[in-house]
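Complex 346.
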Amino acid sequence: MTATVTTEDARRSVAEFVRGRAADLDLGRTDIRADIAEIGGRGLLTGGLGGSDIREIAGTIERVAAESLAAGFSLWAQRMALEYVWRAPEPVRERHLDELASGRRVGVTAMAAALKHLAGLGELPLHADAAGSDRVTGPIAWASNVFEDALIVFPFRGNDGRGHVGVVSADAEGVGIRPAPELLALCATASTSLTFEHVEVRGDQLVTADLRAFCATIRPVFLLLQTAFCTGVADTSVRAAGDRLDGLGAQFRDEYRALAERHASARGRLREYTSDAHATGPADLLRLRLDAARIAVDATRLEVTLRGGAGYARHCDTNRRFREAAFLPVQSPSEGQLRWELSQYD
Ligand SMILES: Cc1cc2nc3c(=O)[nH]c(=O)nc-3n(C[C@H](O)[C@H](O)[C@H](O)COP(=O)(O)OP(=O)(O)OC[C@H]3O[C@@H](n4cnc5c(N)ncnc54)[C@H](O)[C@@H]3O)c2cc1C
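Predicted structure with flavin-adenine dinucleotide bound:
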């Protein structure tokens, strides 16, 4: 009988691969490109691409983040870049879809500014130069996966005053990449800031000329796949905390039980919503994304508390998860933005 390689087999192999690299990723001895290539090479980047049933990719992101949030976060960014390109007109798809889907090329999603702008919390920092010009100028405050050969997907204000989305190569003329700052964690994700100075964005580099409609379509996928890396890192910490509830650890049993319930609830909602991402209401998506980030922060904190002094040593998985999860409240949409947006539904 011929063995069939199932998604679950492929996921298991990828999880092992990332597990073996998690410490080196954390210590900056390597970066996430090999992980993205491994995941793409096993055909795991494309499940449900462009559709509403995103359970497969959500499950993969969750599993990878359970081993390394750096890899899980970069995988989310890769998949989002792929989602944008999948929804782009033919010239962009033809040039970039395969290289992103296979993981041979890394994708950057510089879309935080767009989601903030559409929530009414600021202007688009990138803008077309002058009437009739196809050049774009301005800053990108933060983006991840910024390797020299990456493909950047970015929002900008066009000549018509409306929001657009374009793609450009990170090594294109006029794209300036600042040296990556030293971070608390996630150094392997090549997260840094960029500047565009009169960067050419031709018609065949345009993903959309209607930012609002485009973001309405990608937003559920964006938020749910972010939720997946939150529940992934939380899962490992909840399990690790659950193994340390004896002795003095017994003092934390109530706290652990409450946390495990919140985690199970978030995972249950994630499973339900990812089966039809576009059928879920905006408030439910925001609430789940906020809950999942907070659970991850609480779970990594409880794990580090129960682990004792060993957890305070930098080269320890518990410590790594604690530092990695500290990013989640500031990741766009930040905890502040999520709370604010949710308050609009009260
Ligand atoms: C390691 C790392 C990797 C990242 N990767 C990516 C990526 O791949 N793609 C991407 O798009 N982004 C990325 N980001 C950006 C991230 O997702 C957030 O957008 C960013 O961290 C938000 O922080 P900020 O510094 O822009 O703070 P701001 O959002 O500017 O907030 C700073 C403070 O100002 C307040 N504030 C902000 N706006 C308002 C307002 N309108 N009115 C009143 N108060 C306000 C906030 O509450 C907060 O207290 C990354 C950031 C980091 C740190």
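The longest helix spans residues 211-242.
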